[in-house]
Amino acid sequence: EKQPCMPAQPQRPLIIKTGVQFTTKVRLLVKLPEVDYQLKVKTTLDKDLPPGRVSRQFFILTSNTKVMDIEDYSNGCLSVTFRHLQLKEKKNSNSSAKGNEGLLSVTEELHSLSFEACFTVQGLSIDLETCSLPLVVISNVCQLPGGWASVMWYNLLTDEPRNLAFFCNPPRATWSQLSEVLSWQFSSFSDQGLKQEQLLMLGEKLLGHAPSSESLVSWSRFSKENIPGKPFTFWMWLDSILDLIKKHLLTVWNENYIMGFVSKEMERLLLKDRESGTFLLRFSESHLGGITFTWVEHSCNGEVKFNSVEPYTKIRLNALPFADIIRHYKVISEGVVPENPLKFLYPDIPKDEAFGRLYISQPSKVHPYLSSSWMPISMRSCPSSTPLSCPSPDPPMTPGEFDMISEQLCFDLDTITNTFRMTRW
Amino acid sequence: EKQPCMPAQPQRPLIIKTGVQFTTKVRLLVKLPEVDYQLKVKTTLDKDLPPGRVSRQFFILTSNTKVMDIEDYSNGCLSVTFRHLQLKEKKNSNSSAKGNEGLLSVTEELHSLSFEACFTVQGLSIDLETCSLPLVVISNVCQLPGGWASVMWYNLLTDEPRNLAFFCNPPRATWSQLSEVLSWQFSSFSDQGLKQEQLLMLGEKLLGHAPSSESLVSWSRFSKENIPGKPFTFWMWLDSILDLIKKHLLTVWNENYIMGFVSKEMERLLLKDRESGTFLLRFSESHLGGITFTWVEHSCNGEVKFNSVEPYTKIRLNALPFADIIRHYKVISEGVVPENPLKFLYPDIPKDEAFGRLYISQPSKVHPYLSSSWMPISMRSCPSSTPLSCPSPDPPMTPGEFDMISEQLCFDLDTITNTFRMTRW
DNA sequence: ACAGTTTCCCGTAAATGC
DNA sequence: TGCATTTACGGGAAACTG
């Protein structure tokens, strides 16, 4: 007879890219009597999904059955690890289904891996079955940010282990919940989460007004609608910054030198009474994955001027690390000796004191040659005043809740991993 | 009965990468009587290669049969185009063969596509068969340069349509033959081949002495042994330069502004009597895919000094196009106003007159921001004198011979194309 | 240990589908 | 036509394999 398993506790749904290998492990937590037969486990994707539920169908391209093995002789548990699993889309898929859920984007479409086995003891046949938490299936890494948005939202707002229809009507998140998760996106790979002031700016950006703990943020606002006046969503924007930090700004971010999320209004407020040459680092709000510095200048007549450099993106940061850009940055005007306008990191840390340890580039010594390097520069022509921004204040949040390790009756779906982006959670 | 075809005239052997699609077309040149049956062609790799001939075995992963079609109603010829063909290595290959030809590298191992068809007319069954010229099969683009070296050598030195053992004992090339082909590597994608002086320098580099038309260059010297004192072969070095030109220097090369292949001794000889600030552009001999400029300075006391910048490679040229590097290049010394030492392109063309049309970069106008860009710089510390080099003179060569269009009895193997590097020949 | 070779897969660009 | 999604594959790096 069929004996459905207790579902595993909610764990981390993950993202699988077609054509890229992933690994999953299944563990049998009940200790079986000594057996002389092999327990074969079969893995399938979307085993008994009601047809039409998803618009795309996938199958496991590689071998999907494997025999369980004793995992650890001390406890005698059986387990099996499937490696090199690979998903491929079933083409010729009934296009009727396509229409069915046309509202959901691919990264909102949830799938699930099923694991089945059957063992016979004393003439009694017992079917075992369990399944993974929801999975997002993508075909290109450019869909990863969208996938992670889904994973975050799901984890944040439901305890259901397998609500594949979650995004048909996704609940809203309170700012209290969401801001904690956002901060965690940073602290999970670096030494710094987000500070109250940074979260405040993000909350305002998302809500259009100062957030309170109970403010509600819709899924659409978070990851489907573009930010007003911008060609990208809030999450796309934030994720591009996470990526920039991971690949180019980690040391600077870890030192907490990047204020990062600060409105242009707040920026001016902070800098205006500071010494000339005081600067702060801020992420671009107008372009994806950019960082800029803004410094203040007081002219003799008491006039205050703010300058920001065109944001540096990964392309530029590839040529010269950010700390070295700050170190050597020059503003060039006609007939004037180039000058580095950056003197003090806000509030008042001498530049080299702050960044000295982070400088990397040094004239390469390829003997017969003069070293070659880049000097990061701006041409000063006719600088203009400053544009728009968005101000206001709000609260942070507390840690906890996302870590659950379950011990379950039948199968314990342990891990689904593939190499990319596993550092994220 | 079997009726082997006349082999097609030598055409262009090519390079196929496993896992990457390629296309091939077969044409039947004899006009068949009106037929009511379909003529099916089958493609196979290394159909009847003597076992042990090659150390790796491949097969066509995709569908390999297709029916011929009337190509062109005016002449009634039948042809078939195989698209989306893909090669994959046969694993578990007999390792005995591996030992057999352990001397040959993968890019020296030649393969061949066979095409077969059978048609019946008036109870008479006729087998048709033809095959491609030799093919090099690679698994990663990093093997392309090696593959092209093989293709060049084969084309240059044999007319045999299918000598798959060519590299077991490859003949030597005369400098006269080889230099023509080398020049052609440049002229095939640009406006400039190689001049006599440039070829002279290459010949000396290859032979260790001034080349004469009859000087013989071995395959090994060309593409297997490292250049003395360097960790790369002659061809690797030259190919890295071809690549650099294609991707970053095409406009400058087309204008014939890159002397490129000139020994450091010759360089000094040319520059020493020129006005201070006269410079020339030369490819790095010590690093793969690098270009540098050398300029001359006459100090007041009549002393002549030569300076070269650390070569710019594709990484650097990605950040700023070469013409703009020349335009804005500055040498920076303590307490001195940065100066661009480049005044006249050798022999005496004012820099901006030569390069003006090629300047690209301009301060981007992202409104509220100060533009950001790079200034290419060198730090002047304690410049030293110059190192080694290698001088001497020799001849060029004439065009011709490589273009043959064949009309053959049975099949005419027409083209084997895949997207990468087809521009080469 | 190691060099030659292949596999892996991101990230950009192009192609495809709706 | 335009947007969403997938496919293609170069290129760097890791893994493999004698």
Describe this structure in words.
The structure is a homodimer of 425-residue chains. The model of chain A is unreliable at 1-11, 96-100 and 382-425 (pLDDT under 50). Chain A starts with 13 loop residues before the first strand and ends in an 8-residue tail after the last strand. In chain A, strand 16 and strand 17 form a beta hairpin. In chain A, 23% of the residues lie in helices and 25% in strands. Chain A is an alpha+beta fold and 425 residues long. Chains A and B meet through helix 8, strand 18 and strand 21 of A and helix 8, strand 18 and strand 21 of B. Strand 21 (373-379) of chain A pairs antiparallel with strand 21 (373-379) of chain B. Chain A binds a DNA duplex (18 and 18 nucleotides) through loops.
Which helices and strands occur, and which strands form pairs?
2 copies of one chain form a homodimer.
Chain A: E1 14-17, E2 22-28, E3 40-45, E4 58-60, E5 65-67, E6 69-72, E7 77-85, E8 87-89, H1 95-100, E9 110-111, E10 113-121, E11 124-131, E12 135-138, H2 144-157, E13 173-174, H3 175-187, H4 196-207, E14 216-217, H5 219-223, H6 234-254, H7 264-271, E15 278-283, E16 291-298, E17 304-308, H8 314-319, H9 322-328, E18 330-332, E19 344-345, E20 349-350, H10 351-355, E21 373-379, E22 411-417
Parallel strand pairs in A: 1-12, 15-19, 18-21
Antiparallel strand pairs in A: 2-7, 2-22, 3-5, 3-10, 4-8, 6-7, 9-12, 10-11, 13-14, 15-16, 16-17, 19-20
Chain A binds a DNA duplex (18 and 18 nucleotides) through residues 17-21, 56, 89, 95, 98, 102, 105-106, 138-143, 419-420.
